[in-house]
Amino acid sequence: MSRTIIVSNRLPTKVQRTDDSLTFQPSEGGLATGLGSIYREDDNVWVGWPGLFVETTEEEEYIAEQLRADSMAPVFLTEAEIRDFYEGFSNSTLWPTFHYFAQYATYEQEHWEAYVAVNEKFCQAVLELAGPDDTIWVHDYQLLLLPEMLRQQRPECTIGFFLHIPFPSHELIRVLPWRAELLRGMLGADLIGFHTFGYMRHFLSAVSQILGIPSLNGQVETPTRTVLVDAFPMGIDYKRYEQTASSETAQQHEQDYREALREARVILSIDRLDYTKGIAQRLRAFELLLQRYPEWREQVSLVMLVVPSRDQVPQYAALKEEIDELVGRINAQYRTISWNPIHYFYRSFPLEELVALYRLAEVALVTPMRDGMNLVAKEFIASKVDQRGVLILSERAGAARELSDAIIINPTDAGQLAEAMHDALVMPEEEQTQRMTAMQALVRQYDVFAWTKLFMDRLAYSKIKQLTMATE
Ligand code: G6P
Fold this sequence. Notes:
The protein is of the alpha/beta class. The protein contains 17 helices and 17 strands. Strands 5-4-1-6-7-8-11-10-9 form a 9-stranded mixed sheet, with helices on both faces. The protein starts with a strand and ends with a helix.
């Protein structure tokens, strides 16, 4: 029987070191949920990095054994690989380039070499598990070379690739010294998926401009194979958010927060620490709201959660300082004894508390400078079981292609964002309900399980197509 192998940089379980012991925590991430039903089935397996640096082989063996019991196979990274592959090429070269922050990108040959070596390491780990007829689904920008590496070793395998971040204009891709290798790496797959048609078009034009390989209707004709390319906007586990939002625990938390905030109206912002998320710009826009509309002072608070991330990368550390400084300055200027303009948390929250905040918030600010999709927008919608609340959404998030009933803004336009917050706060309930109901229908239908199924079905189809063409 053939098996399905999922490969991503991070495993769906986070292994952490606390004092002398190791803890294993399932990740709350959307990908882990969506693929949960696949990798745990039959003989299937998920290959990835457990997220920490492991010093001893005893510890490696122990972790591998624990993970094996839950259908996972770890790829361990050395300290140098974490620095050069993860913080280096993945997050200081590819991440800024693909999010149109080319001014932050570094181009280090050593980082590139580590990227090639780690992709090979992942390839070896997969080859140990994969038979000739297996299906391998590779995820995201950390593993762009892996599809072609696998293709070389297992020509008959069915290989899918999905990119979770934007694919930018070929003008940005061509800046990369290793652009051709990266594109060829992706083309080792049978099916390449993106969140939006825009990203897909950019990819096809990069393949044509940089590699000179033409495509027609989303089919790239390489000299040896046809590669299908398509858009698959990712969804969330809608029911999980809807059910959690209806739970007594979430309602109790919401009540507690409401009392603690003395009934102030809440604008909510939730992100991983990242310069792509527009966090600093959002703070300045909130300050502008308080300046332009003094009537909102003491009436509205911004609750801002920033989840720590990649803080060893210099730009992230600098952003953390900028946020600390902005929050301090705005709060110091506007706060009163009984009211805080901004409630800022730099940590992650458990699901029930997160959902309680979604319930509580009248407005959610999802205003990234660039974002592949943004699932926070969808989680907010799924948690609004009373159909009230307004989503303010950046036109540069992939989610904006689907959620046209949000207030869509340009996140660099602080004035527009301040006005959008004001409009959201005065929006009649009837209009809120209309917009929310429409968005809920869409997010409920295209949930993460529908996304997984669509991709897997299309991948199976791509293989049948290849086989038919080969025999014609
Ligand atoms: C984004 C990427 C993922 C990544 C996640 C967290 O969503 O698309 O591939 O896993 O950020 O970032 P981290 O660097 O902590 O894995």
